[in-house]
Amino acid sequence: MIDLRSDTVTRPSPGMLKAMGAAEVGDDVWGDDPTVARLQAAVAERAGKEAGLFFPSGTQSNLAALMAHCQRGDEYIVGQLAHTYRHEGGGAAVLGSIQPQPIENAVDGTLPLEKIATAIKPLDAHFARTRLLALENTIHGMVLPAAYVEEATRLARGKGLATHLDGARAVNAAVASGRGVQEICAPFDSVSICFSKGLGAPVGSVLVGDKALLADAHRWRKVLGGGMRQSGVLAAACLYALEHNVERLAQDHANAAALAQELGQIAQIRVTGQATNMVFLQIPQEHCAPLEHHLRQHDILMQALYGTRLVTHLDIAEADVEIVVKAVKGYFAGV
Ligand SMILES: Cc1ncc(COP(=O)(O)O)c(C=O)c1O
What we know:
The chain is α/β, with parallel strands linked by helices. The protein has helices at residues 14-21, 34-47, 58-69, 83-86, 91-96, 113-119, 146-158, 170-177, 181-185, 211-223, 232-244, 249-263, 285-297, 318-333; strands at 2-3, 51-55, 74-79, 99-103, 129-136, 162-167, 190-194, 205-209, 270-275, 278-282, 300-301, 307-311.
């Protein structure tokens, strides 16, 4: 199957499975797992932060970070399109008693500075206490401009806010921009980095930040049910990914660019955007379901919607791009 629905669909490679099988483990709730400790230290070092904490998912890592930064009745400023706000079940409000203050994202994924400034509430008993600015990088595949991130986080800090980055794809951002992961993470107090997206591990995210913040996040991780036992088996997959799957992200970005370029030649399809490993398309409504069906017959999985997204990853080879384009062209030739 050529599965373009998401970069979360990758299967662990034989090398990764071997590393998982060979992992030295212990009970990580007791702090005994040496492989988890090694992963946490390695990610913290790469990100230029004091410490790291391993989580089963990006959703939980983001939520524990929000809960570590904000108390009950506090507020975080976040984009309408942000994963933490839109796609995580409202966890900050539901489980954290944190009020989200969403702001409309600009087309480049940024939150306009004047809107951030306006959203920050004065200290007054009438208002939730604005505590945190949360950004996402990449967002919809787009790398946030470094100068923007610098300004937005400076503005937040100037108003006494902490800053968090949902860096589920921070490594894609680093590879695409030629900046290091450390540079992408530097402006933020905390960053959640996923290993189960472009990096190709089956599960796992690491939250990085300073030790005091991570001590709070560690407690919330336990409360949220994320304390894992012999999780070195999973951490080994993430360590393998760090060693083997970082530089190759450039190939995913090139494959996405080629896919966008080629699909853009098809009259019925409108390519509305491409950035890093994501391609955004518009497909005429009447063709959505039949195209999806046609592609499935050719062992290609994509969600064909009017506005849809294709995502490249390490299980999509360069040659697969041509196979997909040929199959899409074949469908439209027959209608
Ligand atoms: C930007 C972003 N943040 C966070 C997450 C959550 O990660 P997980 O699925 O591991 O909970 C995702 C998942 O796709 C994501 O795309």
